[in-house]
Design brief:
Layout lengths: L3 H13 L2 H5 L2 E8 L10 E3 L1 H14 L4 E10 L2 E11 L5 E13 L2 E10 L3
Parallel strand pairs: 1-6
Antiparallel strand pairs: 1-2, 3-4, 4-5, 5-6
C-alpha cells in the first residue's frame, strides 16, 4: 500500500526539479506516460535512463516549470495528484494548464505514472 506521505515525497522531487530524485522514485522498469504523443496512451518512457532523459530535457526547455498540487489521494497501491502546471518556453511563451497524474506503486516505487492535461489554446 502507498501512503499519502510517499506521494508527497514524489511531489517534492518534482517541485525541486531534481532529476535524480525523480528517477529514484521509479522502479527500475517503471513507466512514465506523457500526456502527449503519437498514440492514444501518450509517449511512454520506460526505465531509469529514458525517464532521466525526458525530465532532463523538460527542465532544460522550461527551467521554471512547476506543478502546484491542488489535491492528492491514495488508495491501496494507487495515487492521484491534481495540479496546475505553469512554465515559460525559451520563446517567452507562457504555458498554464490543469492536469493530474495517476500513479501505480509497488513496494513504494512508481511502476506507472500516467499524466493527463487540459491544454489551453
Amino acid at each position: 500500500m502507498v501512503t499519502l506521505e510517499r506521494l508527497k515525497e514524489v511531489g517534492v522531487q518534482f517541485a525541486r526539479r531534481d532529476v535524480e530524485g525523480i528517477v529514484g522514485c521509479f522502479a527500475e522498469d517503471g513507466v512514465f506516460r506523457n500526456a502527449v504523443g503519437a498514440v492514444p496512451e501518450g509517449e511512454s518512457y520506460q526505465g531509469h535512463a529514458a525517464i532521466r532523459a525526458f525530465f532532463t530535457g523538460l527542465f532544460q526547455r522550461t527551467p521554471d516549470v512547476r506543478w502546484d498540487h491542488t489535491a492528492e489521494y491514495v488508495t491501496a497501491d494507487r495515487g492521484v495528484t491534481e495540479w496546475r502546471r505553469t512554465a515559460t518556453l525559451a520563446t517567452g511563451e507562457r504555458q498554464e494548464w490543469l492536469g493530474c497524474d495517476l500513479y501505480t506503486f509497488k513496494d513504494g516505487m512508481i511502476v506507472l505514472k500516467d499524466t493527463y492535461i487540459k491544454v489551453v489554446r
